[in-house]
């Protein structure tokens, strides 16, 4: 298995894990049980997504595409231009 990504928080981790699962890639989340120890352990690099070696490049590509996504023109509310609301 390869560690392919370090999510910023548990919400991003679960969202990406589910996105990968929808593409047929089983991802495992590490470090989520350590979140309660914040303040006693370093915060950066605590969470990680792992996938099988043969799926690592495809998973990295999907995450890169997700991170580069922009809202479609016309999908933005007038009061919040440039902000993607989910």
UniProtKB/TrEMBL annotation:
InterPro entries: DUF2007, N-reg_PII-like_a/b
Domain DUF2007 intervals: 1-66
Pfam families: DUF2007
Protein name: DUF2007 domain-containing protein
């Amino acid at each position: 298995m390869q560690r392919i990504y370090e999510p910023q928080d548990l919400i991003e981790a679960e969202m990406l894990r589910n996105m990968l699962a929808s593409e047929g890639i089983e991802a495992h989340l590490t470090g989520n049980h350590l979140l309660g120890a914040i303040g006693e352990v370093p915060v950066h690099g605590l969470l990680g997504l792992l996938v099988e070696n043969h799926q690592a490049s495809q998973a990295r590509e999907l995450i890169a595409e997700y991170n580069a996504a922009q809202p479609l023109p016309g999908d933005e509310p007038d009061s919040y231009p440039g902000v993607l609301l989910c």
